[in-house]
From TrEMBL:
GO terms for biological process: mitochondrion localization; negative regulation of cellular component organization; regulation of microtubule-based process; response to stress. It is found in: Cell projection, Axon; Cell projection, Dendrite; Cytoplasm, Cytoskeleton, Cilium basal body; Cytoplasm, Cytoskeleton, Microtubule organizing center, Centrosome. Keywords: Actin-binding, Cell projection, Chromatin regulator, Cytoplasm, Cytoskeleton, Hydrolase, Metal-binding, Methylation, Nucleus, Phosphoprotein, Repeat, Repressor, Transcription, Transcription regulation, Transferase, Ubl conjugation, Ubl conjugation pathway, Zinc, Zinc-finger. Residues 937-986 form the UBP-type domain. SUPFAM superfamilies: Arginase/deacetylase, RING/U-box. One of its GO terms (molecular function) is zinc ion binding. It comes from the Eukaryota. Pfam families: Hist_deacetyl (PF00850), zf-UBP (PF02148). It catalyses: N(6)-acetyl-L-lysyl-[protein] + H2O = L-lysyl-[protein] + acetate; N(6)-acetyl-L-lysyl-[histone] + H2O = L-lysyl-[histone] + acetate; N(6)-acetyl-L-lysyl-[alpha-tubulin] + H2O = L-lysyl-[alpha-tubulin] + acetate. Pathway: Protein modification; protein ubiquitination. It comes from Daphnia pulex (Water flea). This is Protein deacetylase HDAC6. Its cofactor is Zn(2+).
Amino acid sequence: MSKQTKFSNFVKGRSPSNKKNEKLNVFVDHLQNTRDSKDKIRGKTGIVYDERMVEHQCLWDPNYPECPERFTRVLERCREYGLAQRCVEIQPRKATQDELLKLHTPDRIELLKGTDGSPDAEALEAISSGYDAIYIHPSTNELALLAAGSTVEMVDALLDGKIQNGMAVIRPPGHHAMKSEYCGYCFFNNVAVAAQHALDNKGVEKILIVDWDVHHGQATQQMFYEDPRVLYFSVHRYEHGAFWPNLRESDFHYIGSGAGKGFNVNVPLNKTKMGNADYLAIWHQLLLPLAYEFQPELIIVSAGYDAALGCFEGEMEITPACYSHLTSSLMGLAQGKLAVVLEGGYCLKSLAEGAALTLRTLLGDPCPVIAKIEQPCQSIQESILSAIYVLRPMWKCLQFQGRFDASKVGSQKEGKHFVPSVTFEGSDIKQTFFATRNCYPVQNNETIDLLDQRLDKLIKETSLAVPKHRVCFIYDERMALHRNINEPGHPERPARITSIYQKLMEFGVLERCHRLDARDADREELLWLHQADYIDEIAATAGKKQSTLNQLERQYGSIFICPETYQAALLSAGSSLQIVESILSGESRSGIGVVRPPGHHAECDEAYGFCFFNNTALAAKYAIEIHHLERILIVDWDVHHGNGIQRMFEEDPRVLYISLHRFDIFPFKPEESDCSVVGSGSGAGYTVNIAWPKRGMGDTEYLAAFQQIIMPIAYQYNPQLVLVAAGFDAAQGDPLGGCKITPEGYGQMTNMLSSLAQGRVAILLEGGYNLDSISHSMTMCAKALLGDPLPSPRIEPLNPAAISTIKQVVSHLLPYWSSLCFHVDLPEGNVLPPCEVTKKPLSIEEQLEKLQLESSGATSQETETIVEGTVLLLEACGVTESAPPKTLQEFLLLPENVEAMKEGTLFSVVPLSWCPHIEGHVLPDDNVANPWSLQTPCSCCQDKSENWVCLSCYQVNCGRFVKGHMKEHHNESGHSLVLSFSDLSIWCYECDSYVDNRAFYSAKNRLHVEKFGEPLPPSFSG
């Protein structure tokens, strides 16, 4: 058989460029980040809580969901698993006045303080009824201060290096607490206060807040809506606004404003019963790409567990174990600085289990296996694609969806086309009083029992075993005896493994690993994949003269042989099996094999590409034959295609083989390495070739391949073991690869794979020929397996060729893997009106029926408010009647108004409850440079007939029906919010909408007193 014989064939096409006038590249030491991480090893996990937090409870409704048992059950479960005992306890403390005033108004702080220790339950309930879904207990102020302060304290401990990560088991929760309004069980915004503290006092410039509570953290969104230093990412039940808190701004197209545009991400869940597959898709398609591009210095999770299976508020089906995976994927970012802060969760069993498994992951224990996932549901596909559509102009990572002209597509969904749209099915009616009892969903006993049984089954079947050794390691100097006697400078040289060994020693890695003894692979093991005559041929080389071996070299091509080659090849293969045995026997969680000669090019009957026996393939076969595994994932990130591994398993669905390689270099077999090659027979779909068409791919491109292809497929496959054919010849500086992956890039890929198969990951050395690059890269992989904090990868704009390759791979694999369902075309340009929605209309009959139901269920206090409001509305419109209607319902049921509604001549303008231009723009109405009153004329034309006052500078100008001087003032000054002298309405020029909010009360009240001689009722304070 005639074969290539020269090493030059292996590096064909790598000659230096002869182009003239090339740009001068500035040298950057790509290994410096790795060197800097030498002494950064896994730190402690902190926990903060205060036993007094059980005191906060509802005095008038013993069944209220936000109950003390939420706190006690979480701590109990963490202690039952021995988790809390392994943590560093952070001392709780109260938030200071200065910390709270950064984000909350003094009056709300003082109001809650005034309830401290109050014995008057009736008064506390009355105050509570003025806010949406809260109750106040005599201890609430003290405990809300503790919850906020303890969160700040944990973030301080993180940023001061006292702990690596931590969990705050606190209550009351915080993410609904607005600047001047309590809301949704929340009083002070614990996470937001801690984030602001980090920005102001700890030198942090970029924070990622991940809010996985099933309710939208609207208050956190409001507080950072214009701040590009905070990337706020929320996944929440929405149902097009029909689910609480029923806000338009919870939808996908609210992405921030001003400098913060693009830094607010909402993923609305528009149906119930979403599960693990849906959340993992959100992580892979949106959160992780954005997070890696953003590169945060701190991550805070608003960790509500009300999307967990069993929770009656969320009605979702996230399993407790899935929270471990959601957490693990974040731990490679921000050098491991991750704070998890308890928010909601009201099914006590799934809350406790989910929180405990989250803490277990923070402590470094392996992620439990979750059941094989199915295709993400159609609804979440639409939400993810809609979010990508509005965000991709701001983010370089979101470029995998094509583009099309929406005007040429007849329907919203036509083939591969998707047109985002906005529908709002909620209500803009802002209540002034809220129910305080029996105001929550209740499950029937049958449903509770069924969910309880499902949870018990899940908990029982979830293995939480932790092997004795986190990482095992194998190395034997005898493998260095294999060498090229004729060409001492050959890149596949003994120093490859000795340099790795020395670097692992230098970084203190080996002393933290379990050392295994190397062994030979026996003949029976080799015969699993190699032919007997081929094994005999290689065995016959042992001890032969070099001149005889030179002839055999020429027969095979792209290899070299010396008298010690056979022994080294046996050790390399046998040591790979030894690592797998240590992992599958439960002795070690993961392992590293510093072995040579490499193996992934070796065929069943021939040596090829420096390889003799196929180490990684034999390791997979060992797991199948000895341990009876059914699903093994092999990720081959060597820059050369692993032709040998692919051929050995191309018809075997028990092995999912994924190769990332350059298509244009050795082994020059396009019929095997092209993206279109996906396996055959029963193995169709189980071969994945991510074939780069050119040099230059780096961290960005490889991480994109992981997020878009490898991790979605891997989770759907659900492997029992992960093997990495770890060639480091795609590393920057490698003489053969021409790519530029950094050591930290390899560490990040290792970290991602570690969430699979309960952390059973074996890294087996293949290629890599720059000694500095391979030694640092393998060391970073080892540190990732040990749980050390990882440096950030080098993120650059995606190579267009990589985008094309990834899209091509997905197109070939989509028939086999339903998780790859997001590569569709999205419209060019903007197809969504700014903050406008298609509201589902209600018929007149439905509107009246709704009013009748609301009125009949109103308390006497609420009825009085409606009456008062009706009178005020009529007076504001210039209407006076001796006997006004008693309720708003009666007002609308007047014959003339019913007729007007039918004719479409009676309108109700519903203002927004909040807009992003309130914070920092509305100034106090006293002590301003422009004195003003109801009689103040327009500052430009002196007209008094229809004027408005600017709420930023209090200049008075006329409206559009006069000469439009207020609009001109907005255009010149940028001031957006103005108050009408006529009807006390507030208009925002930027939002193009009416707005009503408590922040406007002072200015509105001033006008109301002047117009009507009495204060504006508190119920009309916005």
